[in-house]
Write a structure and sequence with these properties.
The chain has 245 residues and is an alpha/beta fold. Helix content is 44%, strand content 15%. It contains 8 helices and 6 strands; from the N terminus they run αβααβαβαβααββα. A 6-stranded parallel beta sheet has the order 3-4-2-1-5-6, sandwiched between helices. Strand 3, helix 5 and strand 4 form a beta-alpha-beta unit. The longest helix has 24 residues.
């Protein structure tokens, strides 16, 4: 049995998912509807992220992954990208103490090198400062794209085979899993997407093979604990089969 299969919870397990992923969508539309600059939507979205983190911890969720900045987001106008990266640095500098107080451990997945040395150092400091957190494991996906992640894993495996460190017949799901940025984390049980859109948008494609999907019409800046509770309740009503029947 592969590591990915072993990580899937058995039927009849607790209704609270061990790992929730959220595609935080709708910041721009929220701002446009209020005739505000898009950056105001991103700032309001950061407040929603704070609410989601606390609500997840209160609900007993062990792992929370927030899709904050995709690899495709680099294609946005330069001024918006600059605002987003500036907001990221501000969050890393000003929220770490609160994360530590709340027992939250922060990890960043994605191509952090694209953000530059200053932001990379802020990420490193934030991760180091929160390593003792046990209440909630918070993953923030930054400059993340699942296809790129899988391609990078394939390159690493190809290099291992070429160097004689691995035989092709040894490559199974568990081996692939060890080469992903999420290695050591449980697969998501539930993925929530806001704003009414119904797609994964290159988010945790490998890891979400058996995740339950919940799509909500709320724009991300308006997301609060009640929306998370609704998604958790929906998750609890579903019967998860994992292909067994």
């Amino acid at each position: 049995m592969s590591a990915a299969s072993e990580r899937q919870p058995a039927r009849g397990a607790t209704a609270v998912p061990a790992h929730v992923g959220i595609i935080m969508d709708g910041n721009g539309r929220w701002a446009t509807a209020r005739r505000l600059p898009r950056v105001m939507g991103h700032r309001a979205g950061a407040e929603a992220a704070r609410r989601a983190i606390e609500a997840a911890a209160q609900a007993g969720v062990g792992w929370l992954t927030l899709f904050a900045f995709s690899s495709e987001n680099w294609r946005r106008p330069q001024d918006e990208v600059m605002e987003l990266t500036g907001l990221l640095r501000h969050y890393l500098r000003n929220e770490v103490a609160q994360l530590v107080r709340n027992g939250v451990r922060l990890r960043v997945i994605g191509d952090r090198a694209r953000f530059g040395a200053e932001t990379m150092e802020e990420i490193r400091r934030a991760e180091a400062a929160t390593t003792a957190g046990t209440r909630l494991n918070l993953n923030v996906a930054l400059s993340y794209g699942s296809r790129a992640e899988i391609a990078a894993a394939a390159r690493s495996l190809a290099e291992a085979v070429a160097d004689g460190r691995l035989r092709p017949e040894q490559i199974d799901e568990a081996v692939v899993d060890r080469h992903l940025t999420t290695h050591g984390m449980p697969d998501p049980d539930l993925i929530i997407r806001t704003s009414g859109e119904q797609r994964l948008s290159n988010f945790l494609l490998w890891q979400a093979a058996y995740a339950e999907l919940v799509f909500q019409d709320v724009l991300w800046p308006d997301f609060d604990a009640s929306h998370l509770r609704q998604a958790l309740d929906e998750f609890g009503r579903r019967e998860r089969r994992f292909g067994g029947r």
